[in-house]
Amino acid sequence: MSGQGDDPAHLSGSRSDAERGPSAIAWSAVLNAVLVAAFVVGAIPIVAIAHGFVELLQQSKIRSGADWLAYGFAFAGLFLGAVFFAYAIKYYLSTAMVLLTTLVWAGPRGGNGTRPGNGHNGHINGNGNGYHLDLGYHPFVSVHVAAYNEKRVIDRLLTALSQLEYPEYEVVVVDDSNDESVEILQRWVGRPRFKILHRSSRAGYKGGALREALMLMDPRTEYVVVFDADSVPFPDSIERLLPLFYRVSDGTANRRFADAFGRTDAPSEPGQIRRRAEVAAVQSYQWHVLNKSESWLTGAVRAEYSGSYMIERPFQDAIGALKMIAGTAYMIRADVLREVGWGTSITEDWELTLKLYARGWKVVYTPWAETPAECVSTFARLARQRMRWAEGHTHNVREWFGAIMRSPHVTPLEKLEFLYDSTYYLQAALFVVGSLSWLVSELIFHTHVPGWTAVLGWSLLFSNVFALPLMNLGGLILEEAPARDAQGVLGAVALSWALVPFQAWAAFKGLVSKDEGPWFRTPKTGRVTDQVRHLRRLYMLRRWLLGRRPSHRPAPPLAPAPVYRATRRSRLLGWLAIGVLVIIFGGLAALSLHAPTVSAAGNPLYLHGSGTAPGCTASTIDASAGARATPCAIQSQAGGVTATWAWMGLPAQTVAAGVWTFTLYWSGGSGSTSDTVSIAAGVSATASCAGFVATIPSVGTWTADYGASTANATSPLTVNTSASQLPLVIPPGGSLCLSVTLTHNTGGKPSMLYDASFASGGATSFVPPSIVVPEGLLGVAGLALLVPLFARRLVRRRA
User: Fold this and answer.
1) How far apart are the first and last CA of the chain?
2) Taking a C-beta distance cutoff of 8 angstroms, is the pair 630, 613 a contact?
3) Which residue in 145, 207, 220, 571 has the fewest CB atoms around it within 10 Å?
4) DSSP E strands: which ranges in 112-184?
5) Other CB atoms closer than 10 Å to residue 248's CB: what's the count?
6) Alpha-carbon gap, residue 81 to 88, rounded angstroms
7) What is the model's pLDDT at position 520?
8) 3 state SS of 215
9) From CA 795, how far away is CA 798, in angstroms rounded?
10) Packing angle between helix 65-104 and helix 568-594, nearest 10 degrees?
11) Are the C-beta atoms of residues 518 and 392 closer than 8 Å to each other?
12) Which alpha helices (H) appear in 60-164, and where do they start and end?
């Protein structure tokens, strides 16, 4: 066994293509392509919003406080929705990849089988209860527990720890209690393997207590396991965690790799065991199921954990992203823990995670060393717990942001995951505030950001809505949970909304406060409502869906309860989840074929002239407001005077049928003036409007009477086309043409002003119903060329 002089900064734990084999190389290539595609898709809304903001400023369309308010809601909704969409893409990708790869992956190794991404790379034999790694000896393990007023659960935990099957271990309990827990723990003093220390203060909270345990543990200790007081570990928990710190040679390819690159850590003989030098800790599944049937809230919490620990974290492990140590039920190398030490943050686990990664160490995850624990049973306790997590999380993000982002030991993908984690407890707030803002802009103000249509906005909203529920449902499927547990998925959605103000405030506080707040303990009830057995090692999700059951005997339950047997209804649940994924993505793809891709709905087009004002010649149309200090002018004449403007050389696009709105600026005229304005719009197939056909001839006329007091007034003109009017289809390189005829009837002859700034009073413009530009995705195909360039950087090869 190796491990002397391990340097995580130089040992990446990755394997060469020669080691990994053709199937692993192909899998890696597919994964790289999927990651690049996901990144591109996630960035599209942000790019579109930025483009729309620039276009809106260029159009100078925001002219009043009401405009600022309306467009403020629109931009806030879309921007926050786009930020959450980045999380949604990650959740969709995690769910799809974990479910689908489990469906098609090859069968088991050993007695129980393993899945890609669960961290198993050692010589593992199925023994019916867990995994066994033959190192030739048993490394000494010290189990640490920090307790504070846990009278309802502490005896249950210590009883479970006394029944661990591993031969070489001790239990160190550091207790800060001032309730009956002190008397309960006194009964364990002096028992073999147990060390009980009572502190008279809570200095450093949990981190301070674990620091005391570190000093009290046996000097022989090679690995430390941390359990929370409400957990009930299985007897084989240590045996399930320990193998993930090692790798086993699979043949001569390792030797060739070692010789070629001067590596000494790669085993040369098949079956030779070596320590995975870069792995500092192994995180297991905090399986909150003991009291999941107590109420709708405990069911919701259980479903929430299921999605995170059965979908999100295995996916993070598969692609080599940064993985959080999560409070309870993890194993860490004792030498590494002595080196980095315990901090005293109110989220000491997250602080430890960042310490490890900044120094080049890695954390791996496995769901198959699951540790049953309690769900929080009341909303008040849950809100208090999440507020502590949110405050400590963002405080440590602020403290460690520079160290993580600058560290050469942290891979680009790990840094990207850290950026995701930086706003982890603000996700729900982003979703709620963004969704409400967009709904206000869409349903009340009817305001669209340039480049966005209602279809795109609704697609973004619903894409965000379904992300987390589907991931949670996928987690329940992989656990083979009873069908009734699926109700918790809806409860988890309700909880995410209800916790928004609490988590958002605490996260903001952690970000701006100099020091963290106090530690608030989450009270435990000690109730057990459900039978708990080891999770099955699914050979393939397909076998479960088709009703085939693993043949190995599961571990005994921790609590008596009726045995759950999968039924046809529960098996259909798996197909339902995958079917929903297919329907959502297929439906959005189908809608995208018919939805406007780029729409200028609500964007004014301005008339421009050539020459010196006021005798400008009618010329062009575009989306830029005029800037002339002296406007161009066309004076109406008896019998009519006609001017034509052209927007030439356009890409293929369509002007939809609907309402055309004209805003004309007038000057001159005296007394009672009556003029008639006739407007015609049409399309030319060339870069000229000479002889264009007015497909919307004389869409309307307008007569206005001006007295002396109303001269130089700005008058809006609204013209409605009939519903049967066909849209204007502009071919590639064609032109959109607009013809205005001014006919003077009585009074003084006024002039229509155009091509000037608003301040000059001559920004005549018109707004067509919508201008739709179809776009293809062919240009995005070029991004495939980036896949080989970023393959080795984006994905850390699994050890």
Assistant:
1) 16
2) yes
3) 220
4) 125-126, 131-132, 141-147, 169-175
5) 18
6) 10
7) 80
8) helix
9) 9
10) 130
11) no
12) 65-104, 154-162
Instruction: Provide the pLDDT for residue 428.
Output: 78
Q: What pairs with residue 740 in β-bridges?
A: 643, 679
Locate 41 and state its tokens. Answer: 């898709």
Task: List pLDDT tens digits, range 290-319.
Answer: 999 888 889 999 999 999 999 999 888 888
pLDDT surpassing 60 at residue 231:
yes
* Count of positions (residues) in the chain: 799
3-class SS letters over 88-117: HHHHHHHHHHHHHHHHHCCCCCCCCCCCCC
CB 124 within 8 A of CB 243: yes
Alpha-carbon dihedral 19, 311, 45, 425, rounded to 10 degrees: -120
Which candidate, 519, 510, 468, places its Cα nearest to that of 491? 468
Q: According to the model, what pLDDT value does residue 117 have?
A: 34
**Are 373 and 301 within 8 A, CB to CB?**
no
Please report, to the nearest 10 degrees, the dihedral formed by the alpha carbons of residues 487, 490, 491, 493 taken in order: 160
Residue 145 in contact with residue 159, Cβ under 8 Å? no
The secondary element (H helix, E strand) that includes residue 474 is helix 454-478
| 226 close to 371: Cβ distance less than 8 angstroms | no
C-alpha pair distances (Å), 49 with each of 130, 368, 449: 51, 43, 8
CB 601 within 8 Å of CB 769: yes
Mean pLDDT, the chain, as a whole number? 76
Bridge partners for 679 per DSSP: 740
What are the residues whose beta carbons fall under 8 Å from the beta carbon of 152, sequence distance 6 or more? 524, 525, 526
Instruction: Write the DSSP assignment of 590-658 as a string of letters.
Output: HHHHHS-SEE-TT--EEEEEESSTTSPEEEEEESSPP-BSS-EEEE-BTT-EEEEEEEEEEPSEEE-SS
CB 197 within 8 A of CB 172: yes
Question: Quick one: pLDDT band at residue 28, thresholds 50, 70, 90?
Answer: low
Return the amino acid letter for 172.
Answer: V
pLDDT band at 676 (very low <50, low <70, confident <90, very high): confident
Q: What is the mean pLDDT of residues 352-371?
A: 92
**Tokens found for residue 481:** 């949970």
User: What is the spatial distance between Cα 354 and Cα 645, in angstroms, rounded to a whole number?
Assistant: 63
Q: Cα 96 vs. chain centroid, distance in angstroms? A: 14
